[in-house]
């Protein structure tokens, strides 16, 4: 029986959330699409769907920027009749336009900072659309409070900033009504976007954590839519204690941004800050001097600029922050504007100093700043002393470095870079076929090339019969042998099929596998004319009568002594993982580990191995539930290239190529085919059947659903083969 909480979640994901305080209606579960096409075509509620396959007649690109608040200011007119609106020039959203193409139309969707009477909302909406190209989303007061001050500020903001509760008394169980309000608010935003969107032509840029459910709502409608701190005060106190020379000289001006949230925890923090300011000023203050100036009120832009301009150093000690622009604003203000009327002092060399928390997003881009852990009060105090004690020449060099970066990486640069990335990602959006996969907020759209289709057995057999020189390259695990099979030994049926195929004089057949040569030799011993490429091609032989050849560029394996201890460390901490030691490689398997933890460990191990093996002649790659270290220059693509080249050199240029695999390593084989055609190793008339196993993004043009279908297709080819004895027409010699 499905739990009630789960069905409620599915209702919310479908937009079928209840009006808060009213009974829930019983809704059906949304289904999973298993056929290609536009999602709305299978939606029972087609009358309310606005998705369309009809191409728009409007070809000019337009971008819809969606954020919690619109970049406009609103105030009541003096006569209390209507509203007056103006652009908010401090809004980051407004500055994004500077980085977009000049001809691109920009439309904003968001909420207003004021309450608009429902009777006025239509008029306000029309006014904002006509004059500002803004579409307001009006949130009912009960939803707004629970959405913004509740879920966003009490749950999401602390979570995304790795924040513990502000005070010991704050906390409690998850409040589902806040979550429902969050989903309801996102639904309202989606409705406003749907009212104005042209899904075939518009880009949609959604900002910030307030609207994380919005992409799901839009994707369900348009599957081809193009989206893309008191520690500082304590550090000042510590600096005045450790360096008495600054007493009576150094002043910390703390500008407190007005809290956008509210609650008992914030009140306690504000009370603590006030007490700290009072204590420090009473301890170190003198007549006419207070070391702490605490500004707890809204500060205008001009006043903030004035403070930045005269400050010797700016200290930003947020314990977590994403986009903090204070350091950038300070650098620009310290640079100032040089003109003929400037005083000699202001037109001289510019200098600035920054002390920033290592936990804020802009920290990596400020290489001249002194980075600190704000929780370490003593270290922060020393950093503040170092910053204001530094010689002017050093301050000047650091300022020049920062100003070069800030002046060239402004909002327009960021906006332009983001849009270019989104444009590149969406370039072939409307050429692709789409599948809707998953339930609830796990719903995703998979877009595949329109030429990607299921391999027709009848078609490949007919081409096979007409060809004279065939190259057949088969992966093993996940291709002819199911990944889930515990017994990996090939069945008698598989041995018979491969033996028949390799026994045809027109065929050159290879099993190209990551497995070791001993296992492959034992398993395929009955197939005397079968070629085997083991360990991704490090070892290779053309038939059972030939010797194994080493195809790697380097036979030194001293790197194993470095890599193996690292793998053992992760094996000990990841239950279900194992290490496979090959002759030329080391492989860490985690298919039997917890999927989430195993994947996380694999990513961490990959970075660890790449770091310690940076100077070794090896490559570190991740695959399907594996991390592998192998010699450079070894891949299945190299094997395919050698097979095609040798056949051509011996006058047996392949006119039929069948290449099948299921994971990332097999993509190298698919990729090499194109270069083989362009270099003349394969003819442009060669019939190519590059086939992946499973419907997924791939460089192959064909797919089969599972190993059972692969075996069935190979059986059909075997039945069309000529198994009669003939002289060995394999190219003389071996690779």
TrEMBL record:
InterPro entries registered for this protein in UniProt: Glyco_trans_20, HAD-like_sf, HAD-SF_hydro_IIB, HAD_sf, Trehalose_PPase
Family that this chain belongs to: In the N-terminal section; belongs to the glycosyltransferase 20 family. In the C-terminal section; belongs to the trehalose phosphatase family.
PANTHER family: TREHALOSE 6-PHOSPHATE PHOSPHATASE, TREHALOSE-6-PHOSPHATE SYNTHASE
Alphabetized Gene3D superfamilies for the sequence: Glycogen Phosphorylase B, HAD superfamily/HAD-like, Trehalose-6-phosphate phosphatase related protein, domain 2
Top-rank lineage group of the source organism: Eukaryota
Pfam families: Glyco_transf_20, Trehalose_PPase
Protein known as: Alpha,alpha-trehalose-phosphate synthase [UDP-forming] 7
């Amino acid at each position: 029986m499905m739990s009630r909480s789960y069905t409620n979640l599915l209702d919310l994901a479908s937009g079928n959330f209840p009006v808060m305080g009213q009974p829930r209606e019983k809704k059906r579960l949304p289904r999973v699409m298993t056929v290609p096409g536009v999602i709305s075509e299978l939606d029972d509620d087609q009358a309310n769907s606005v998705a369309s396959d009809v191409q728009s007649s409007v070809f000019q690109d337009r971008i819809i920027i969606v954020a919690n608040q619109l970049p406009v200011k609103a105030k009541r007119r003096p006569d209390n009749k209507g509203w007056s609106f103006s652009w908010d020039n401090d809004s980051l959203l407004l500055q994004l336009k500077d980085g977009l193409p000049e001809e691109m139309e920009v439309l904003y969707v968001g909420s207003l900072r004021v309450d608009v009477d429902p009777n006025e909302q239509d008029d306000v909406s029309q006014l904002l659309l006509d004059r500002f190209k803004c579409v307001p989303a009006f949130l009912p007061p009960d939803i707004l409070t629970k959405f913004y001050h509740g879920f966003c500020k009490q749950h999401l903001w602390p979570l995304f900033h790795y924040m513990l509760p502000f005070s010991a008394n704050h906390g409690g169980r998850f409040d589902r009504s806040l979550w429902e309000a969050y989903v309801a608010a996102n639904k309202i935003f989606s409705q406003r976007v749907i009212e104005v969107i042209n899904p075939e032509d518009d880009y949609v840029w959604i900002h910030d954590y307030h609207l994380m459910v919005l992409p799901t709502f839009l994707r369900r409608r348009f599957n081809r839519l193009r989206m893309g701190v008191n520690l500082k005060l304590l550090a000042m106190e510590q600096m005045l204690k450790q360096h008495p020379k600054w007493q009576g000289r150094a002043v910390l001006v703390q500008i407190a941004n007005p809290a956008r949230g509210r609650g008992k925890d914030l009140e306690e923090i504000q009370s603590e800050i006030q007490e700290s300011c009072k204590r420090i000023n009473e301890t170190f203050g003198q007549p006419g001097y207070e070391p702490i100036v605490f500004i707890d009120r809204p500060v205008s832009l001009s006043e903030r600029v004035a403070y930045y301009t005269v400050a010797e150093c700016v200290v930003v000690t947020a314990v977590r922050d994403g986009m903090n622009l204070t350091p950038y604003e300070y650098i620009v203000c310290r640079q100032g504007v040089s003109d003929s009327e400037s005083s000699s002092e202001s037109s001289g060399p510019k200098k600035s100093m920054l002390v920033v928390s290592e936990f804020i997003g802009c920290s990596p881009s400020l290489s001249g700043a002194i980075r600190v852990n704000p929780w370490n009060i003593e270290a922060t105090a020393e950093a503040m002393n170092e910053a204001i004690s530094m010689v002017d020449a050093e301050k000047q060099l650091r300022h020049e470095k920062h100003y070069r970066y800030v002046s060239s990486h402004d909002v327009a640069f960021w906006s332009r870079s983001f849009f270019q990335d989104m444009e590149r990602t969406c370039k072939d959006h409307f050429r692709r076929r789409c599948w809707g996969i998953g339930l609830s907020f796990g719903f995703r759209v998979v877009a595949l090339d329109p030429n990607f289709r299921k391999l027709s057995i009848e078609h490949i057999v007919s081409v096979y019969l007409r060809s004279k020189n065939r190259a057949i390259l088969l992966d093993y695990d996940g291709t002819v042998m199911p990944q889930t099979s515990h017994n990996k030994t090939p069945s008698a049926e598989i041995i018979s099929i491969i033996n028949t195929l390799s026994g045809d004089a027109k065929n050159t057949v290879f099993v190209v596998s990551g497995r070791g040569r001993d296992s492959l030799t034992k398993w395929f011993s009955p197939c005397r004319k079968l070629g085997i490429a083991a360990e991704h091609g490090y070892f290779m032989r053309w038939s059972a009568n030939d010797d194994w050849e080493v195809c790697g560029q380097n036979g030194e394996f001293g790197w194993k002594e470095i890599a193996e201890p690292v793998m053992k460390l992760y094996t000990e901490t990841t239950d279900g993982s194992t290490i496979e030691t090959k002759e030329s490689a080391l492989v860490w398997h985690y298919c039997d580990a917890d999927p989430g933890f195993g994947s996380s460990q694999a990513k961490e191990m990959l970075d660890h191995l790449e770091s310690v093996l940076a100077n070794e002649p090896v490559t570190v790659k991740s695959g399907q539930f594996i991390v592998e270290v192998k010699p450079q220059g070894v891949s299945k693509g190299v094997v395919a290239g050698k097979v095609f080249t040798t056949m051509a050199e011996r006058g047996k240029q392949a006119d039929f190529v069948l290449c099948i695999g299921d994971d990332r390593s097999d993509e190298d084989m698919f990729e090499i085919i194109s270069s083989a055609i362009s270099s003349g190793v394969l003819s442009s008339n060669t019939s190519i059947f590059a086939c992946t196993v499973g419907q997924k993004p791939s460089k192959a043009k064909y797919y089969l659903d599972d190993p059972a279908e692969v075996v069935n297709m190979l059986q059909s080819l075997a039945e069309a083969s000529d198994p009669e004895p003939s002289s060995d027409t394999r190219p003389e010699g071996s690779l």
